[in-house]
Amino acid sequence: MRALTSLLFVLWMYGWMALLGILFLPALLLPRWAVLIGIRLFARMVRLGLRLICGVKTEIRGLEHMPAGPVLYAGKHQCMYDVFIPFLLMKDPAIIMKRELLWYPVLGWYALKAAMIPIDRAGTTKTLKSMVAEAKKRTDQYRQIVIFPEGTRKAPGAPPDYHAAGIAALAKAIEAPVVPVATNAGLCWPAHGLMRRPGRVVYEILPPLPAGLPRKDLMARLQDALEPATEALVKEGLAVQGRTLPGG
Hints:
Elements lengths: L1 H22 L8 H23 L1 E6 L10 E4 L5 H4 L1 H4 L3 E6 L8 H7 L3 E3 L5 H16 L3 E4 L16 H11 L3 E6 L15 E7 L9 H27 L7
């Protein structure tokens, strides 16, 4: 049964992507805000599909911690769902994303129009400088920057692996608060594969870290905020599902 509902959800998600991608084609000729309406609508349909088809409820906590204006959103990254959530939390997010995604039909068109920040994940000093420069342009437009400090999806319970250079350089350049966001989404939507488990996904916005922290202090405080909060959410999510992690 779970395999069937998971397949139906994938059809729902990509079906809505195709439908909205076609319906919003005229938005590619309009100002950027028109494309963001379509992206935000797609994020809502993904959330609705998870609830109706897979029995996955989504809860967002700590909205009172999200500052107005430019911020650096630093989230745990457990699955693809994490990429949609910023569009439900913030007015004008700019996501730092893999450059390869620009080659995807529909997704790439709208990412370009929405002025996301594509980067080469191979990572060079030139790449870092370009990312920082682009992020500074976005915050000058009063936008919010979204980065996943570990760089790639990690399963719940996996050891943390924070990439200090990128997030520290961004935080220094944009001079905005850093907002940690914990989650247990990987319990319901794994990092890889089609299967979706029923349960409760929680995104918890934690108190922002002030702008201007030294690199070492910033990374220590970010990890000290995200890891215990994520661990607590994972335990909570496992209790809802009535299971434990492998080896747990």
